[in-house]
Amino acid sequence: MNDVVKLAGVSKAFGKHMVLNGLSWTVERGKVIGLVGRNGAGKSTLLLCALGIYETDAGSIQMLGDRVPELSDATRARIGYVPQSSDLFGWLTADQLLDYFRAFYPRWNDVKVRALLNRWGVPRDRVISKLSGGEKQRLSIIRALAHEPELLLLDEPVSGLDPAGRRDFLSELMSDVVDRETTILFSTHILSDLERVAADVAFLKDGAIRLHGQLDELIETCRRITGDKHSIDALGIQALSREENVNGTVSIVARLDDRHLRSVETRNGALRVDRIAFEELFEEVTR
Fold first, then answer.
1. Ramachandran assignment for 57, one of left (phi > 0), alpha (psi -120 to 50 degrees), beta (any other)
2. Structural domain of residue 200, as residue ranges?
3. On the CB side of 167, how many CA atoms lie within 13 Å of its CA?
4. 174-186: pLDDT as tens digits
5. CA dist., res. 14 & res. 204, Å (int)
6. 270 and 202 both lie in a single domain
7. Do 230 and 276 belong together in one domain?
8. Do 98 and 183 fall into the same domain?
9. Do residue 51 and residue 182 come from a single domain?
10. How far apart are CA 233 and CA 31, in angstroms?
11. Nearest to residue 223, comparing CAs of 252, 259, 245?
12. Structurally, how many domains does the chain consist of?
């Protein structure tokens, strides 16, 4: 089965606040997908629903072929997760924590664990409550990688790390993907890090995936088009964003295929077409 994660019509509200609204989305095996959105867009909620930690109000979710929340122990052992906030047992040392979790997984790479503890400078005999925020984050990542999961869900995994720590983690992440074809879904607000590792990117807005595709292709095909309202509307293009300018013109951001590009080019300069950077695309799609 090629779809590792499959969400169909998933909704989740907290009180009157709708966070996920009929969200349908699939994650294919072997993909590295960056999940982006504004603060409060629902990135963490989506991941927690996928894991069965949050109960959904509507819709269905499958992970590695199992329905959520009825994930079997065998399926859970194939999934790794790094939460946004550390959920480590503060009274244990790093060695004690990892020994505890080793018992839950049929596959556990002690060599990798020791190498990462040493390379990332995580104290092994100090109680976790006494570790720095960055050390706790590194330990949480090591715990998630130790059993070599087929599917890795990461919620802002590098938010507590300095630039050197982020670089080391991203390098390890990409090595894991190359070696074992791990499927990785991670949320982040650090767009520069996402550009380094993500093959795909998904934009979450208003409780749904607004745009999803290969990062390079999105940068290549998304354009800002500016012109008079009639010329813009005549294109018949579904806009990702639309803005009425003070001079009476209209600007849209849209994903253009070859046919759309030819249509724009035949309008004899009536329309201005500009490339946009990834940061601009994020601003336009998620605002």
1. alpha
2. 3-206
3. 3
4. 776 667 778 999 8
5. 17
6. no
7. yes
8. yes
9. yes
10. 36
11. 252
12. 2
265 half-sphere exposure, CB direction, 13 A CA radius: 7
Neighbours of 165 (CB within 10 A): 18
Does pLDDT of 247 surpass 90? no
Q: What is the DSSP letter of 176?
A: H
Max intra-chain CA distance, the chain:
71
pLDDT at residue 157, as a whole number: 81
Q: If pLDDT is split at 50, 70 and 90, which confidence band does 265 have?
A: low
Give yes or no for a contact between 175 and 205, defined as CB atoms under 8 angstroms apart: no
Domain assignment of residue 211, yes or no: no
**C-alpha separations of 65 from 9, 28, 144 in Å:** 17, 12, 21
Kindly report, residue by residue over 179-213, the tens digit of the pLDDT.
777 899 989 877 887 887 778 999 999 999 999 99
**Judgement on whether residues 202 and 237 belong to the same structural domain of the protein:** no
CATH classification of the domain holding 184? 3.40.50.300
Q: Which DSSP helix (H) or strand (E) runs through 210?
A: strand 208-214
Those residues whose C-beta lies under 8 Å from the C-beta of residue 275, and which sit 6 or more positions away, are 223, 224
Whether 129 and 19 share a structural domain = yes
Q: What CATH number does the domain containing 253 carry?
A: 3.30.70.240
Q: Report d(CA 78, CA 64) in Å as an integer.
A: 8
Q: Is the pLDDT of residue 81 over 90?
A: yes
CA distance 152 to 83: 11
- The tokens for 193 are 């890090």
| 18 pLDDT more than 90 | yes
Q: What's the confidence (pLDDT) of residue 159?
A: 74
**What is the per-residue pLDDT across 87-103, written as a single tens digit (0 to 9) for each?**
788 899 999 999 999 99
> Which of 180, 206, 232 is the C-terminal boundary of a domain?
206
